Amino acid sequence: MEILILFWMLLFGVAAALRFASSGAPSRVATDLVRMLLPYGLIALAPIAGYRIAMASIPASLLPARPRIRLAHFDRWRQLDPLGARAHPSFGPYGFMASLLVGLLLNVPMRSVEFLLAVPAVNQEAPVWATTIFQMMAFDVLVMNFLYAACFVMALRSMPLFPRMLLFAWAMDLLLQVVIAYRVAAAPDLPAPIAHSLGELLGGNVTKVLVSMLVWIPYLLLSERVNVTYRSRAPAD
Known about the structure:
Elements: H1 2-21, H2 30-57, E1 77-79, H3 82-87, H4 96-118, H5 128-156, H6 162-185, H7 192-222, H8 224-231, E2 233-235
Antiparallel strand pairs: 1-2
Helix pairs in contact: 1-2, 1-4, 2-5, 4-5, 5-6, 6-7
């Protein structure tokens, strides 16, 4: 992970610098330059912050308590004590579950690259609709990079709250797309071609989240590995 973090910082830094240099939005004052570069820096640091905060908050030796309120009541299960669950052969984020962890990490570069390609840097002299798009899209990537990195750690450390945290991240992702559409639509003098392109981008983000939910929610509810690892229960005999 430390190597991945260094690689991520280098790769995103170079990509952001190229995007900024080709944006055609020169800065006339230092404060304007800082305002333009700050979102890129925050986007780069967001997944690192999510990863480190979650790692520091969840020690590897922790035996977390199960949530008192059960939300997944599908199928028949027998309860396991925490130590019994860890001794079960299906315990741990392995097998098909590992592909979900990889997908959570891949969300970070995918959303970041999408932002770099779709949203040019703008200075404070740009139209209101342009600065609104830049700020809202940057905020979206920042928040989701943090959440997906935190979800990755919770899954890796077998935290019982991981399935709920992932549902929260998906819900937040969908909510942000709606908020962006509402805020940008309210900006004055929004060109129709820009509105159409943004609508396609936001619609694509919503589709990707819904497809992820359609694929992974049944697995999170019914998988023996998920139930043993995150709910301390095994299939009833």
